[in-house]
Amino acid sequence: MLISESVDSQAPVGLVVDGELLRFSTAGSVDDGKSTLIGRLLYDTKTVFEDQLDHVEDVSRRRGDERVNLALLTDGLRAEREQGITIDVAYRYFATRRRKFIIADTPGHLQYTRNMVTGASTANLSIILVDARTGLVEQSRRHALIAQLLQIPHLVFAINKMDLVGWSEARFREIEASIGALIAPLGVRDTTVIPLSALTGANVVERSAEMPWYTGPTILEHLERVPITSDADLWHARFPVQWVIRPQSTSHPDYRGYAGQVAGGVLRPGDDVIVLPSGVTTKIARIEQGGVPIDAAYATMSVTIHLADDVDVARGDMLARPASQPTVGRELEAMVCWMSERPMARSGRYALKHSTRWTRAVISELAYRFDINTGAHDATAVQLGKNDLGRIRVKTTTPVVYDAYAQNRLTGSFVLVDEATNETVAAGMLLAPAAGG
Fold it and tell me: I need a labelling partner for 254 at 20 to 30 A (CA). Which of 99, 286, 301, 406 fits?
């Protein structure tokens, strides 16, 4: 079964800005308030359509809720509303004068780990909800481990329901200390802890009058100000070719461009580049965006590159700098999240989609299954089931040009597809090759 996404493609008109885009995900245990927090953010930033709010008010009234249930703004599926839980990955969009945002409201249940991985895989930041009454629980630790595995650069622990513990600073400091102990061995680069009440709105958009002892940012203030420019790999130029443009018209008989999205670093006209996996070297003649020449292209920009020489470049090839090349190989090691109902077993054969290249692949070894509750490695495992994570070795029929996921999330990720059913069965994060390998 393919992972589905509940996508609200309509964005409210009003606060349309030219600021940078921040993608963030939410995670937490059942009833920690993930959906309520997102609903509060949308409501307090006035990015909810009037008819949406009317519908939520009507549903809340019919359910007998004491106040408008803002969680219903994100729990879009009927099954979610009836059970009071988040099942699917619900994407929502809003903007302020500082930034644009894409939210992935991900499930907290163990059986929906694959959905959480999907929603968080492109996130700059993850908000992990913690109930102030219970503190850190097993699922909090599991979500922190997954966030570290996915190399999410920024973590926010939102200590929710502070109103139910009397806005106690002592309780907040106790949980804050336990969070410090949790993340210390994980190597998380940036962690922020914020006390709040999603139900009342305290410290979500507006600063709380009930917690004068807290002087840090609100959730929205942090989302607007957290630095994300340096999160992308700005040092290693990577350009996967998505399309070869050859109009073959009489007005442009010699036009040949290579279109795609810059996956890392900066590229400029005149730069020496190597075409991989062939290894042919050439120079960049010019770079265009929307048909207009530009002086430089950097990570996440979609551009067309023209080369100085008539070389053989095809879809799936990658341009890089000769002095900082990615790895080229047919034997890969990776951490994967298994997504299929059908278990993974050794010698399974699949199609592997990496960046803009497709190749056939066989799983040659399962090194271990990763226990997402404890971080332990089970080397005796012989297969991975749905929602399991593990380390595998894969052999491909054609070379793959890649970086370690820890260096570049765009060139270090892939999916495995069952060619018979077209089902995406796994999402993978490539590891650096062993020394001498």
Answer: 301
Q: CB-based contacts of 277: which residues, under 8 Å, 6+ apart?
A: 317, 318, 328, 398, 399, 401
- What percentage of the chain has pLDDT greater than the value 70? 82
How confident is residue 145, by pLDDT bands cut at 50, 70 and 90? Answer: confident
CA distances from 179 to 142, 182, 214 (A): 13, 5, 17
CA distance 127 to 152: 11
Please, are residues 403 and 327 in contact by the beta-carbon 8 Å criterion? yes
Which CATH number is 175's domain given?
3.40.50.300
Asked if 430 and 404 touch (Cβ cutoff 8 Å), the reply is: yes
Is residue 436 a part of any domain in this protein? no
The verdict on 144 and 274 lying in the same domain is: no
Hey, is 134 helix, strand or coil?
A: coil
Q: Span 87-91, mean pLDDT?
A: 60
Q: At which of 212, 231, 250 does a domain end?
A: 231
Pair (275, 343) in one structural domain: no
The answer on pLDDT for 10 being more than 60 is: no
What is the rounded distance in angstroms from the CA atom of residue 4 to the CA atom of residue 410? 21
Sign of CA dihedral 311, 317, 318, 323: negative
User: Which residue range is the domain that position 249 belongs to?
Assistant: 238-320
Q: What's the token pair of residue 264? A: 């890392």
Which of 370, 368, 367, 394 is CA-nearest to residue 148?
A: 370
